[in-house]
Design a protein that fits this description.
Blueprint lengths: L1 H4 L2 H13 L9 H11 L5 H21 L13 H12 L5 H10 L1 H10 L24 H32 L17 E6 L2 E6 L3 H14 L3 H13 L14 E4 L2 E4 L2
Antiparallel strand pairs: 1-2, 3-4
Helix pairs in contact: 2-3, 4-8, 6-7
Length: 263
């Protein structure tokens, strides 16, 4: 989001066109509503700017290195992770002028992956020796672990701080079953501070990350002991072992396509 919103000289005309197009032509105050939405989405401060850019550029470099021998995350065909990763790397970072230019310049193999993931055919002619299946023996390459270690640096401390906040909030508020657990633009349950390297970052509470984290917990809890050991070793290797213990006191479910608090 930083590269989208904090380079207005490169991005704003592109973004204004797309946000303006969200409103029907007969919408009253269409231009003012467009500007209002855009203003609410700007969030990275000058204090955190350098850290955010460093982390992203390190991520790009590691992912570009990973895609040298293989066209997808786990081999010659896309997995669920490829489709999940595509959402930000295409929608925010592969289309907007400033970050798209950075990706083309600094991580061309990542940009080719973005192109490939948006095509119906395989579009991987530069990978002469790669097959069309996942890597053998459920291999997870060391280059992918390097990518995950970069992501863990901010994801884990923010998730821990978010869980601490929400567990206290749940104890105090005790929301009824079925109460929405949804982050809405312009309003929030609160904010948290967490440290990445030596920098303190402030972020809004977004319960959705815990809705997704429950899926990992469920897989782990329902696995046999031998599989749990393998999963734990994997998470240790990429700096994410703490995620197994970061849990909310209440589960989050879905109702009418929205997250809600369960018993």
């Amino acid at each position: 989001m930083h590269f989208r919103w904090n380079y207005p000289e490169d991005n704003d005309e592109f973004l204004r066109h797309h946000f303006f197009s969200l409103f029907p032509p007969d919408t009253p105050d269409r231009e003012q509503k467009t500007e209002s939405v855009m203003v609410k989405l700007r969030g990275v401060t000058e204090e955190t700017r350098e850290l955010v850019e460093d982390l992203y550029l390190e991520f790009l470099d590691a992912l570009n290195n990973h895609f040298e021998p293989t066209p997808y995350l786990l081999g010659g065909r896309p997995c669920l992770g490829d489709f999940g990763l595509l959402a930000p790397l295409y929608g925010h970072l592969g289309r907007d002028p400033r970050p798209a230019g950075l990706m083309k310049k600094l991580a061309p193999r990542v940009y080719r992956w973005v192109e490939r993931m948006n095509r119906a055919d395989r579009d991987a002619s530069e990978y002469f020796a790669c097959g069309v299946d996942f890597l053998p023996n459920d291999e997870i390459p060391s280059t992918l672990l390097a990518v995950l270690r970069i992501l863990s640096q901010d994801f884990v401390p923010e998730t821990r701080a978010s869980a601490d906040f929400l567990n206290s909030w749940l104890l105090e508020k005790n929301p009824e079953t079925g109460t929405p657990a949804v982050f809405r633009l312009g309003s929030s349950m609160g904010s948290i501070d967490f440290k990445v390297r030596t920098q303190v970052i402030k972020a809004l509470i977004v319960p959705y990350r815990h809705f997704q984290l429950q899926r990992l917990h469920r897989v782990f809890d329902e696995s046999e002991t031998q599989v749990q050991r393998r999963l734990n070793r994997l998470l240790v290797a990429c700096g994410m072992a703490d995620l197994l213990n970061i849990r909310l006191q209440r589960q989050i479910g879905r109702s009418d396509n929205l997250e809600v608090w369960l018993d």
